User: Fold this.
Amino acid sequence: MKVILGQRLFFLLPACILVATSLFLLKVGPESTGAPPGHQPDEKEVAIKPAESIKAETTTDEHIILHPSTPEPGNFLVIEAGPLKSTATPEIEFDFPGEISSVQHTGNMLYAVVGICYETEPDRYNLTISKSANPTESLELQKAVSIGEKKFQESRFSMPTGVTEGWTPDRLAEEREMIREAMAKTEPHPLWIKRFIEPLEGRITSEFGAIRIIDGNPPRRHDGIDIAAEEGTPVVSPNRGIVRLADSLLAGGKTVIIDHGMDLSSTYMHLDSIEVKKGQIIDRGEVLGTVGMTGYATGPHLHWEVNISQTPVNPEQIFDNDLLWIPCGYAAKKLSTGHQ
Ligand SMILES: [Zn+2]
Assistant:
């Protein structure tokens, strides 16, 4: 029986552990109504806590909505806030482990994505958007974030001897840095268009966040999903983006990392062939490579990851509608070179 697996074993600490709280600053643009058509806040979802200096009438419509409203560990969480009536500089803070994307604003609406670490304990947390640069405009919006419990798959298996032959600590460290840099390099605005599509059709053989004990070693988490398919099957980009890495790595084998903008990237490992080059713009549905078993793998499959900055999130969630709340808005002409 073939053992199908593969992940960034041996060289990635769960980055999300390192980020307990994120803080971002941004400028708010001119006022306008940027809410998606027909989208109104649910009263039950809205929690507004104006600072004392704010007149009630200036805050009655301001709100925060979360998508999904009750996220799980390993989800990405879309934050939608507004209409913001202040032009002061907002700060976004949250008290659960994870990382936040760059912040978008369309008119007076604000959008951001938080990658929630898969090791987050289920609990009720807080998210705060505050603007205090100008005392006359100071405001604080608060929202409770209830993160539910999620049971992750557990598995135990062995790898054939020799699969790590030739690996060196120095090269692994170098590749770890290559991956970190590729995920860190991002366009500030979303590059995606329409819904995300599947990069490959096939059977999921290892789930996101799975707890895996390999050869009796301490448990490691699976930062992506494994999709089994025949060697040579084309793998397509689930949406538009810029190729940030296209290289052959020890554990990842032939690997491609695509920046979809706004700190959202997708990663493809163990490819048999790579059909794209670093710096290239790739379209939604365009072939990036073919399924293989290069690197730390014993059977043909795709290891697919989605990250918010360095925090892995469940790739299957990308097919939900949540990201569509964030306007794409990035001018096509700015994508004319891709060499950034
Ligand atoms: Zn994998």
